[in-house]
Amino acid sequence: MPDRLAVDIGGTFTDVVLETGEKRVTNKVLTTHAEPADGVMDGLAQVLDQAGTDPHAIDVVLHGTTLATNALIERRGAKTVLVTTEGHRDVLEMAFENRFEQYDVNIDRPEPLVPRRWRMAVPERMNAAGEVLTPLDRAAVEGLVPRLVDEGVESVAVGFLHGYANPAHERLVRDVLGNAMPHVSITLASDVCPEIREFERFSTACANAYVKPLMSRYLADLRDRLNAFGVRCPFLMMTSGGGLCSVETARQFPIRLVESGPAGGAILAARIAAELTLPRVVSLDMGGTTAKICLIDDGEPLLSRSFEVDRSYRFKKGSGLPVRIPVVEMVEIGAGGGSLASVDRLGRIQVGPQSAGSEPGPACYGRGGRHATVTDADVVLDRLDPSRFAGGTLHLDVDAARAVVEADVAQSWASAEGGISEAADAITEVVDENMAAAARAHAAEWGKEIASRTLIAFGGAAPIHAANIADKLELDAVLVPPAAGVGSAVGFLAAPVSYEVVRSRYLRLSAFDRKVIDEVMADMRAEAQAVVGPVAQGELSESRKAYMRYVGQGFEIAVPVLDSTAESLRRAFDGAYEQLYGRLIPGLDVEVLSWTLTLVGRDGAAFHGSRPHAVSSGSAIVAGNHSRIARQDLPVGNPVAGPVAIVEDQTTTVVPAGFEGRVDEYGNVILRRSP
Questions:
Q1: Are residues 434 and 368 in the same domain?
Q2: pTM of the entire predicted model
Q3: For 620-656, how does the pLDDT look when each residue is reduced to its tens digit (9 = 90+)?
Q4: How far apart are CA 557 and CA 320, in angstroms?
Q5: How many domains does the chain have?
């Protein structure tokens, strides 16, 4: 087997996984926000040392990161300008012209990434068919150059009305500005998001332009440092849609990386569900900064073509910055091990969304943290082994954890409730209920049931809290896979090389023209082949979808395209529509607005763990209020009754009273309620 390296940069930890032969070596290091590559190289050196191998043996590097997401949320991107059609500079602020919170008179929307003074309009106009109504005023474009230079602009997004139908004007602006300012990054909306609906298209283009210089520099820097270290092999990036692409593609379209880390976790959970024939699963990825929840049915995670960054209202669709990219559909909330706990003016405990991150991190890390976090509460409750946390790279300071929990929560809340332990227990109850509420809301939004699913828990903090969350959600079982603490990075190893292309090309079934489908599919396949072909191995598989609706409706549904005939498209639409809405509308014509084509290469290798050695369950030791047992010492198939903490290098699985845990033949820890 080839040696493969997977790296996932999160808000608190950078996870590194090296798969060499039948052995898998894992490590966690604190994320180095100023220079993220520093943490990657540190983690790489450690796993190579543990594996006893050298960098030249690595055959492929797989990487995912939340850096693009964090740059958007924290507004740390490039100084960006939007060049758009005259009269349309305010599209970004007009948005959908709706109220996502109907009765909030002080409704708060995210500020556009590009302020109004940097949204510049030029005369030009296409119609919806891509025909030129007003030629582009080249002199007006050239006249922008002095202002862009004076403003110190780093990146330009170009988005014209109906540019998806004919990108000629956008490409001419790219050529003019690129020749005059070769150092400036340029993003075309027709490249990033060639779809109808200008707000989402412009928003996606601006987001890509905003993070492109930052991500391009980072990826180039990391690639150069890997090469200098001796890692000279293909370097692939995880995308938000659950596939892998080349670094060159990622540098051009970094907006496709916004959910790359969490997508790896969803791929991990989906592969486990498929291998173990678990029909209905909910995955929980709880790290140091956020928790991500994904619904998986029949081994497939929910997929979408829209995503919102930086929602100003928790769980409120429409309150964030929309981007139109292929994405694994999940809900993400500020509930991680580093989430800050406090007491508000009404005496209620609040947890998150603010996080201590990795700098300084929770107080128990001993790096200067001064505020209570979820991890501090877990330390107070004796759920973590201070000497084995993060593989022993961090020795937890129990006294510091108790001090901040007392100062931030116990003193102002627990006077009538109890002491420090009661305050710590309340913190964990609040964060667990936050995650359970997010799972319920996400399931309801998609018309799914949450009860009776299997919870697959991974990430450094999820196995600690999984049993309590499962109890709140009335779930049947909890599954904690091998190497759960670095689960998203392990998921990268199971991801295929893939790329999705979209085109808006209008077609009514009553005026069906097969040539339209053949032309658009051939065009999309050529683009996808150019991205996937150079890095995929083996035969490629192709899937196609049409986004269809009844004439007169406002939104489309995704329909698989199995055969390019009007009859086949109508049957597929009727089936998908009836499954979603429970009825059909007779006598109405159907129209297609957009088409997608996805090319997929070979899947990643199987990732299940090897069978652990059976030993006597008497190896459990008593420490404080909990028994602790090392995961590798658990006998296969023999139940271990809670309360017990199952300890491993990158996480701890807490089996509370009323639950029992056992290890299956794949090395998964399965938690169920005691009979």
A1: yes
A2: 0.87
A3: 433 344 588 888 888 788 888 888 899 988 899 999 9
A4: 22
A5: 4
